[in-house]
Protein 1
Amino acid sequence: MRFTTGSIRVEPDRKYVVLPRLGRLKVHESARKLARRLEAGTARILAATVRREGGRWYVSFTCEVVRAARTPTRPDSVVGVDLGVTHLAVLSTGEQVPNPRHLVEATGRLRRLARRVSRRVGPDRRVRRDPSNRWQRATRQLARAHARVANLRRDGLHHLTTRLAREHATIVVEDLNVAGMLRNRRLARHIADAGFAELRRHLHYKTEWNGGRLIMADRWFPSSKTCSGCGTVTTKLALAERTYTCTTCGLTLDRDLNAAINLAALAREVIDDRSGRESLNGRRADRKPPPAGLVAVKRPPGTAMAGNTGTVPPQGGTTPRLLVKAH
Ligand SMILES: [Zn+2]
């Protein structure tokens, strides 16, 4: 449910938001950051969206925000990011960013709950059977567990992408053929979990906010098969091989680190190559000039900063559920 007109505001105590028709709602998270911006005049609310997900109510605000221009803490830094399966990401700096452990654990719980649902008596339209209370309870638990996995994943991605965009001026990622990789059943789960597409999307707008840039290597760029030492391209490299060994110069290093270093090198090539030849051997550069001065960014829904989204607890006298259904 989306409101674009009427009185949408945050109460001065930052614990309540006021929406048209729904009135004053208590939020679980503080709306402090948004309220500060509103008071300082650097944000204007354009719309508010109320939704229910995993047993919780959410309100998110679409805002027009005036952002101060930022520069990355390391203005000359180039980092290659290899998005992986064994690790969430491997950076050309040598850092390995692990997949969040609690996410893997939550996935096990998800499977258990799904099994529980399937063993209970669900609705059957053919014989007009209503679902049992036990089935309904298990279904609610499953929905909550799904929401938790989604939240954990989102949180991990935001932490990584914010850190990268604040620190480095140029970030290079691979434009992976995710659809093609999903056909591999064993890989599919991990890839879906790691949320590659989401990560790239985050990097795209966060580099822009921080005055950096994102370069996407073409999906045919042989980042894994090229030797980062001498540039020799290997024709075959099995996915199971975790270590890269160059047959020409004898260089041996972690497969993903090798790829990350190649990506970083690609960026230097693109930066040096300012003579207009932006496309090089089918490589694509996605360049954005750093914004000058103050920039107004209209945030698309769903990308609201933490603090702009309040959670309305499902119970309590002001539960908007009845009100939402009434309209
Ligand atoms: Zn080599």
Protein 2
Amino acid sequence: MEFDGKVAIVTGGASGIGEAITTELAENGATVAIADLLEDVGRETARGLEARGLKAKVFPVDVSDAAQVESMVKSVVETYGGVDILVNNAGIGQRCAILEMAVEEWERVLAVNLRGNFLCSQAVGKEMVKQGRGGRIVSIVSTAAENARVNAGAYCASKAGILQFIRVLAQELGQYGITANAVGPGLTVTGSPLREPVSETYLGAFLKEVPLARPGSPKDIAQVVAFLASSKADYISGQVIYADGGYSAGKLSVRD
Ligand SMILES: NC(=O)c1ccc[n+]([C@@H]2O[C@H](COP(=O)([O-])OP(=O)(O)OC[C@H]3O[C@@H](n4cnc5c(N)ncnc54)[C@H](O)[C@@H]3O)[C@@H](O)[C@H]2O)c1
């Protein structure tokens, strides 16, 4: 299988899109470290995969905390002998107009989404360089990285920041055979109890801008991540692929 013998760290891999990524990589042979804030949920996800003969284990971490990230990566490397794939998926949303946003909200969103991406990419990148066998870094952004959305100022800024960050990562780590890419989900219905379900009004308005006329599924996103982590994407780096049903192609509602 594609990922036989490979070790992958999936941040936020316990639930939602991250759980689908964990499953996709494990089903294709990877040993997956579920690096999540929620240890219990991660343990349940790992247990479900282990029951199917797949390999996964939870490594609790808050990705915004440098010391925790360092010790999580150390512990994955000690447990499995190395790391080949990092998926930066952990992220939090927000709903607040800029003029009303508390600085604490701005800082928390940036800390988890952007600083977390930097901390994990740096810690895992160092290990990959030390190992000398290349590696793959795939970060989950959002259509919001390029399509501004009201009430999501910090979120949009964090995702746009990741996009430019992975381009620099691609430039700096290419010499070590490490690629860095991003996947941008459109509206994705995960059924995760952690996330407030989207309202019918929001869903209806959003889908009017989606040529394929349906929300994404976690598997839609996970398959693109697996592609970018696979040998089929050996020569792709510094890129973003939007898995959004065509949403970011343009404004569907603007017609002649
Ligand atoms: N669902 C969507 O419509 C959508 C659309 C575009 C982009 N995204 C992005 O996809 C990613 C996953 O989103 P989701 O919808 O599955 O969210 P989710 O809330 O269902 O899952 C996020 C996971 O990340 C974990 N997490 C949160 N903060 C963490 C932290 N500080 N440290 C470690 N783990 C942490 C959570 O425990 C959870 O398991 C996020 O980066 C999100 O911004 C989601």
Protein 3
Amino acid sequence: MPDCRPCSNLADDSSRWLHKYPAHLVRTWRLASGESFSLRPVRHDDGALEEAFVRDLSLESRYQRMLSGGVKVTPEWIESMTHIDYHRHMAFAVTCVIDGVEQFVGVGRYVVDAARPGADVALVIADAWQGRGLGRRLLATLLEHAQSAGVRQIVGVVLATNVAMLRLARSMGFSVNAEPGDATVMRIRRDLAAVNTQPH
Ligand SMILES: CC(C)(COP(=O)(O)OP(=O)(O)OC[C@H]1O[C@@H](n2cnc3c(N)ncnc32)[C@H](O)[C@@H]1OP(=O)(O)O)[C@@H](O)C(=O)NCCC(=O)NCCS
């Protein structure tokens, strides 16, 4: 198991996006087993961390997150994952420091859909850290933040074979329904009126 510590290195340039960076959302998470992590909004200069994180995912985790093995990790794709507006598109990274270098161990995001009420959610935890409670905390963070931002419903598309995500979603109050016309995926849906907004 890697030695994991939180990272507090947040400000390294004066780019314009920093003015809207919601630094007040940074948290430190500790697992019962002792490891500490930073939870923080994704930064526009996180491209290298995002790329390393996605490249290190197993094919299975990548497939479950992207719903496709064919997503190419291009500079444009990385930019679309990191150059977020913190409003319509919100993303949190769970990070730790391994051998002095900050690394992503999880990323979750929601994107408000202009055509429908609500937002689409997706998250992924690094393979080495799955099953330790990080996914549940990250999803709870996304729900709480979305609710506080006025999002009324969170939806997601999950592979029908993704037992872990479907179980997590059900345990957090999502409904799970078949997607009409596509037996390979399920649609998860959660209204946000009743989300507990205790600090995390
Ligand atoms: C799905 C995923 C985000 C869950 O994150 P995680 O950190 O592994 O999950 P947690 O340790 O927080 O566990 C939360 C719950 O998920 C379910 N779960 C997690 N791993 C599971 C497994 N291997 N089998 C069955 N259920 C599992 C359980 O309900 C668990 O709750 P419990 O521990 O009280 O039983 C993670 O496995 C992942 O990144 N998978 C690949 C990408 C993906 O599938 N993303 C979802 C598409 S949007």
